[in-house]
Every structure is written in C-alpha cells, then in structure tokens.
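User: Predict the structure for this protein chain, please.
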Amino acid sequence: MAPFPRLILLFSGKRKSGKDFVAEELQSRLGPDVCTILRLSGPLKEQYAREHGLDFERLLDASHYKETYREDMIRWGEEKRRTDPGFFCRIVVESVVQPIWVVSDTRRLSDVEWFRDVYGDLVKVVRIIAMEETRRRRDWVFVTGIDDAESECGLDQGVAFDWVITNDGDQLSLEAQLEKLLQFIQGTLQPPPNI
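Assistant: Here is the predicted structure, written as structure tokens:
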C-alpha cells in the first residue's frame, strides 16, 4: 500500500457534471508533485479491456467507443465489487506518493466506505453538481440503464458531503468555490505545530 496521504478528496457527481475538470483544476494549482488524480474506473477499464480484447486507451476517453461498452462494463464492474468491494480501490492507490489524492470518479457507497475504513478522517467527500441543462450543453443525454444505475445514482443519498461545488459554467462562481477548497487543502499541507 502507498504511504499515507495528507488528504483524500472523493469526488462524486453525475455524468458531465465536470468532475474531471474540477479535479484537473485543483491539480494544476497544486502541482502534480503535490496532487494526484486517481480514477477508480482506470483499473476497471484496464481489466475489462484485457478480458474482452478491447482498446484500453480508448475506454479512458470521453468517446463514443467508451459509451458503446459502458453498460456492459458497469455490469462487469458490479460483479467484481460484489465479490470484493475494495478491489478497484486497492489497485488505484498502489504506489501513489503525493500527499493529496483526488479520486475523481467515486460512484458507490462501498467506495466511500472503503476509503473511510482505511484512511479515516483524511477522507473528505466532494459532490460536483451541474444542472441538467448545463450537462446537456456538454453533450449529456439520459440513457436508461446508465443514468439510472448505481454507477450514477449510488451516492445521491446516504452520504454527507463535506463540500458541494456547483459547476454550471459560471467561471467566477467556480473560482470562488475552488479558492475555498484550495485554502482547506493548503491547511492540510502545513506541518503540525510543535507542542
């Protein structure tokens, strides 16, 4: 297992809410030596591609290729999680050395529970929200079996969010929200006071 981080931010939100965008904004301001972006879907997609003879790199982007396999990939991932809820979580944290971890695609209560069980109070849950109209402008279209599945709705209730960031395209509003979060993050990077 990787060394203990100073802070783990678990990002959740609907498709096209901008989770990756916000994560990348944080990383660009903190630097890649301080902040890493972890994607639980990475090891899932890699293993799924291997078992199904698919192009792993194309499953990582926001392409039609990924959307073609999304529903079956979700089903396959759920089967893996049923047998071992921490399977993808353990893989994604291997060899991480940065003090700040942003998990940009937390989708299930079992993911949150695993991180909290292992890392305790270092874990903060962040919800990224965007109105449906905004998501549509980002090419989101509701798909039955995907947008109403646990992979999209698993954290809609039952989780207390430490932060909620609205990402509706208002750059000034987003900037103000990110600044508050960055101040909190910077505080976790400070050495503890001498007693």
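The mean pLDDT is 90.
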